[in-house]
Amino acid sequence: MANAHERVFSGVQPTGNLHLGNYLGAIKRFVELQDRFECLYCVVDLHAITVWQDPAELKKSIREVAAAFLAAGVDGTKHIVFNQSQVSAHAELAWIFNCVARLGWLNRMTQFKEKAGKDRENASVGLYAYPNLMAADILAYRATHVPVGEDQKQHLELARDIAQKFNNDFSKSIADLGLAEKFFPQPEPLIAGPATRVMSLRDGARKMSKSEPSDASRINLTDDADQIAAKIRKAKTDPLPLPETVEEMKTRPEADNLIGIYAALADSDAAAVIAQFGGQQFSQFKQALVDLTVSKLAPITAEMKRLVADPGHIDQVLGSGAERAEAIAGETMNHVKDIVGFVRR
């Protein structure tokens, strides 16, 4: 039974080519959290445009991500599925947080440095400031928990810092309005299970990414059984048999990645996978991984294709979700405007 006082917010960017890393690191966990929390799952299209997107492709990708949520088992009637741009509170609160957050905080964000690369002067202001928008995404709903991968922990820490500074900066106003002293909560990270960070099939030191030039580096959620089998069989490995201890995995990144993927798909852990396959040749293990991956992803892929073929239904789900999200975020924004000192209708 969900606890009404515990609310989860999370989102996925609609930038095309959803892959196994998106599923294991985010979407699969969205489904698992439904029974424990009140959940809002967002297609974060405002984040997507921090780099240029083709408008027609962006619409297609928004619907595809929503379809993936539903196909994987997210219940869009019990919980809220929507796209970010339909709820104006995200952008409104992000501006207020732009005025609360400090430049020094954003300068420490390692993801901007990675994404902008050497040509930082040409990066968009949105790409630089998007951690403030991420904080607004979470805090507009006063979410208490956020499922995040290791690479997003720093952004969640920033959201916590922004929440604390807002509460401190406006403590008198918050008290005068009779609101809770800690108006914005300190959202807690939910980091659990194997394969929270799925790596490339071609390089165990690089994260699986939709932007990687080689399609063989990732398993797309739209891949068929033959494509999945070919990619796993060609996945990079070292010449040794599978590790026989969890400790040994730490120095063998490709083996660590494949074992982590198997464990996550099997709802198991690395120790159990090693107990079953440790010391075997990779060829045997890869066949078992093919069979497991196909059995888990094939139903999701089929349902995604069915849903994508009915964009009107997806738009209805997103629109209904946006109305419900707006009701929560609107209440937050009314309080925020009063706290800050704006005059409102």
Automatic annotation (TrEMBL):
Keywords: Aminoacyl-tRNA synthetase, ATP-binding, Cytoplasm, Ligase, Nucleotide-binding, Protein biosynthesis. One of its GO terms (cellular component) is cytosol. A motif ('KMSKS' region) lies at residues 207-211. It is found in: Cytoplasm. Its EC number is 6.1.1.2. ATP binds at Q13, P14, T15, G21, N22, G149, E150, D151, V198, K207, M208, S209, K210, S211. The keyword rRNA-binding does not apply. It catalyses: tRNA(Trp) + L-tryptophan + ATP = L-tryptophyl-tRNA(Trp) + AMP + diphosphate + H(+). PANTHER family: TRYPTOPHAN--TRNA LIGASE, MITOCHONDRIAL. This is Tryptophan--tRNA ligase. The gene is trpS.
